[in-house]
Amino acid sequence: MSGVALRPLVFALACLLGAFCRAEEHAPESLAEFPKDRIKLESASGGTHAIAVWIAESPAHREQGLMFVRSLAPDTGMLFIFPATQYVSMWMKNTYVALDMLFVDRTGRIVNIAENAKPLTLDAINSAAPVLAVLELPAGTVKRFGLRPGDRLHGPAFTL
Predict the structure, then answer these.
(1) Alpha-carbon span 71 to 31, nearest angstrom
(2) Is 132 exposed, middle or buried (CB count within 10 Å of its CB: 0-12, 13-18, 19+)?
(3) Quick check: helix, strand or coil at residue 53?
(4) What distance separates the 2 farthest-apart alpha carbons in the chain?
(5) How far apart are the first and last CA of the chain?
(6) DSSP state, 94?
(7) What value does the mean pLDDT of the chain take?
(8) Which of 7, 41, 85, 134 is the right S-S partner for 80, CB 3.0 to 4.6 Å?
(9) H-run or E-run covering 131
(10) By three-state DSSP, how is residue 16 classified?
């Protein structure tokens, strides 16, 4: 092959590598880069449970959430905190693990719960009222802890 014949091939390869590199710059952020905290869940049945959470407070972190995560340990989750109390709609786009979602008002009271959200769907999962936060936990956690609307989260984002 002559040098002239190789130029289009080299150019195409360079373009492909350039596109790959640009896509990598927008790859999801590692959960290790998210802020972390501990919260407590308190159920009316008398149980108190400590949960380690990643905090999704920035728009970029809220957009990413638990996308692309392949497993979630028990007693861990992600706490989405919004800038103001509002109606919230969540989805499971690019989320590979089934989740329980707790919609929480500014006082830490659980307004409503969505159990066992199906992975990889675009179905809307909505708050029943304006909320300040959503706590995502591995599916089955709500049942395991006996959580219900009216139960409370205790953490730095909530005021009593």
Answers:
(1) 12
(2) buried
(3) strand
(4) 79
(5) 75
(6) T
(7) 86
(8) 134
(9) strand 131-138
(10) helix
Q: Tokens in use for 20?
A: 């790959």
pTM, to two decimals: 0.82
Domain ranges of the chain: 31-154
**Interval 23-75: pLDDT, tens:** 333 446 788 899 999 999 999 888 999 999 999 999 999 999 999 999 999 99
3-class SS shares of the chain: helix, strand, coil, % to 5: 25, 35, 40
Least Cα distance to 56 among 160, 137, 134 occurs for 134
Query: Which superfamily does CATH assign the domain made up of 31-154 to?
Result: Protein of unknown function DUF192 (2.60.120.1140)
Amino acid identity at 1: M
Rounded distance, CA 134 to CA 65, Å? 11
